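Researcher: Go.
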Amino acid sequence: MSRVHILNTNQSSNKACEVDMLNKEKCAAYYGKWKQLIHHFKKDDLVFLYSNKKGIIARGIATGIVETANHEGHEKEEFFMKLKEFQRLKIYLAASEIRDISGMNIMFGQTLFTFKHDETGRKVWEYITKYNV
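Model: Structure:
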């Protein structure tokens, strides 16, 4: 069974990271322990991209294949994974709405949040499917 994750796009530290993820339909993390977080995503996991002060801005399904790239002139400091069925949200899903839908008090400042109960994360996925067309 697939898991459900929310990945922070890091736009408050580097706006180009978020733009790159959206343009290349991928999730990514950079440097040290953070880049290793991409290894948490397995094939067919559901992934939301979360932008600080905006909310969920995109979503996709993990391919399960971790790739590396150079970042800011540093070799292999970006770990990323392509997302299938990538969708940019027309209307961002704010943190308060995510909390209401999931019934959880999620801390959105962290780089990665994985729902402990997959069905809770799927509620968010289904809400977007229903209302963000």
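Model: The two ends are 26 Å apart (CA to CA).
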